């Protein structure tokens, strides 16, 4: 039985210790300082199954653009990837930010992450025009600094 | 002549390309994805001198704790460290978040960063009780994940 709840500060230690493994050894922990688990709890969620954390989503409301929300990080346990948990978390987030007056959600991913690109496209995200094409996908060069190209997603909710 | 203004998305490329150098070669860029320059502009600032960016502060309002603000990242050009630019940016931030209803500012630093600890203490930050002492300073073990101890600061404004 899947249960979704708001993230808590206490979830951090357990999530951060598995995050690199969940991402197949990629060093992801630096991208997820504890601040996201402390200060963005109203729009960040944990999915639990039988009391075990199987997925999480960290997002927030833009403080520059009223009506916009941003998803920073999503992680799903490798064994749970086909169960629609990610999709469920996204919809939970959409509902939460809609209730807080948002009409637009943005997020980004790496051009190498084909699974992520397919996932977001299937969820109805559009890809914003970048400055080059990678395998037919528009990409913003050096978006997150030199060498860190990103695909930029946007969805009206 | 020093001029402080709100951060813009366009500042990112220039800041991110110098940040590791400003920090004496420490790899800091991963801690500063572009999202902070996009979504937290009302409480993030750039200090310019003769049209050159000499310092910046990235902070935001807590979305979990109303009345709390958080400073995530501050960088000052190595040649400008003695000029009080950091202090000026902090006070600019205090004013900005006070106007938005905040009474408390939090931030963290590494226990190895003695300059940062001295700076925050001088500015009136208190150090929150951690679970061990490092050189007489209370430290929260593994705060940002295993091995990433942090000194946790708090200031009423």
Automatic annotation (TrEMBL), chains A, B:
* Gene3D superfamilies (UniProt xref): 3.40.630.30
Question: What InterPro entries is this protein classified in?
Answer: AcTrfase_GNAT_prd, Acyl_CoA_acyltransferase, GNAT_dom
User: Which residues does the UniProt record annotate as the domain N-acetyltransferase?
Assistant: 2-144
For this protein, the record's CDD domains field holds: NAT_SF (cd04301)
- The organism's place on the tree of life at top rank: Bacteria
**Which named protein is this?**
GNAT family N-acetyltransferase
What species was this sequence derived from?
Brevibacillus choshinensis
